[in-house]
Amino acid sequence: MGKTLLEFQSNKGDVLPAHKFSNHDVVVLKLNKADLGSPALAQGVVYRLKDSSITVAFDDIPEEGLSSPLRLEKVANEVTYRRMKDTLIQLSKGVQKGPASDLVPILFGERPPTMSKKDVKFSLFNKNLDHSQKDAISKALSSKDVFLLHGPPGTGKTTTVVEIILQEVKRGSKILACAASNIAVDNLVERLVPHRVKLVRVGHPARLLPQVLDSALDAQVLRGDNSALANDIRKEMKALNGKLLKEKHKGMRRDIQRELRALAKEERKRQQLAVSDVIKNADVVLTTLTGAVSHKLNNTDFDLVIIDEAAQALEVACWIALLKGSRCILAGDHLQLPPTIQSVEAERRGLGRTLFERLADLCGDEVKAMLTVQYRMHELIMNWSSEELYDNKITAHSSVASHTLFDLENVVKSPSTEATLLLVDIAGCDMEEKKDEEDSTYNEGEAEVAMAHAMRLVQSGVKPSDIGVITPYAAQVMLLKMLRSKEAKLKDVEISTVDGFQGREKEAIIISMVRSNAKKEVGFLSDRRRMNVAVTRARRQCCLVCDTETVSGDAFLKRLVEYFEEHGEYLSGSEYVVNQ
After folding, report:
1. Nearest-10 Cα torsion for 409, 412, 415, 418
2. For a disulfide at 386, which of 15, 372, 394, 415, Cβ 3.0-4.6 Å?
3. What pTM, to 2 d.p., does this model score?
4. How far apart are CA 39 and CA 50, in angstroms?
5. Phi, psi of 66 (to 5 degrees)
């Protein structure tokens, strides 16, 4: 993709010391002895992390310093904040002209949204869609300005979004499709590629999944004619630079420099043309919300802006994309987790309320549709969520309604695999919660019980990679990972926070709720959206490990515990510890 990958290893041995670098971080490279404020040799993006090395993607290799000891510094990615702030300023001035001038007053409730009066006729690309998906597509195609697609867990929201994109392309629309995260955008790209749509994925190649790199803007630019011409010009410039170094005559040097300037200007023009050729020829441009402000999309207006996972995006981030189109479709679920807001004050003053949630309250039913058939969970897992949050409107598709763990290949029927819902109660087992230095809560006894259940599943033939252990607390994640490292059979069991698992699923999910105290304090466990996400990650079995005494102090969690007691199996945590 025209980027250079450099791999950095520790000069003190093979394993890197503890660090907070993660994939996609922006980093600068400096000489190790350089002062903190000194200029960087280069800036890049973390591409790959291993125990013993960090690989970074740079636009250009630094000319010097690579033979000296170096250090990497993580830098704040201020670009995102700047882009959001610029968008707010633009909005506050009022959008009199531009593609979104009619859309803005509707999204602020100053004018009602409108729908096409006549029925929209369309033939489906995906013939397997259910009645609620077809109804949503019909409404989306009839919307003149705004449409909300509400997709509860497992209901095929992205499948429906892909069908809407294909229908709109067929109608001749130019579409900007966005989501808050790179992974959600790449997921859309993967689903669209088999349909041979003319699409381009805008974004830094180091942040994209390997399987979508062919669709990346950089890859398509490299394949274009203008890019080949730019490459020829660069070769010519290299030759001239060599000539300039040898030339002693002042006048001749001036001529060469003049020629170099002209060539550099032509090279830049060719590169810009190469980029705009690709963008112009694409029916669908895909990028993250903050990537939508890229200068590469300047002067490009869109007929339709689609935002997937809109209930996980900050409202201001959505506006970056919305200002580029005259119509919008937002897909998401405001009853799952919202974006993470670090500032308590910002959340209190409204930043935690998403555009999707605001519009769901503001708009009438004619511009909204909810998907009601889910394709992930056994109906016992689904029914709790449907009753508690979705007015009992969700039904399980026949392909999943009664599937169990022991239906899977090589899994034997055992007490551990028979239950769809399993409540493991640690009340009275002397397993109290504790706090770590960063004030995150953990529970050693409960972590052991959770991993012991994972072990029972593996011994019954469930593949470790089909099991997820999730918990709301970061300290508990660390503890669970330590326990996993001691047992080779469990190394492929995935462990994460609930927030980190949104949008994912596993055949079996074990939820460690952690809280166990005399005051019956449950903290943010009482967030209905977090528990909704946790339970609905499970396809065939959901195992809840908790202190029922503590969590039943909260009315919402008490109903969850009672639901598991009534419809599932009940075990005491002591049965796991005794049998170790």
Report:
1. 30
2. 394
3. 0.86
4. 27
5. -70, -15
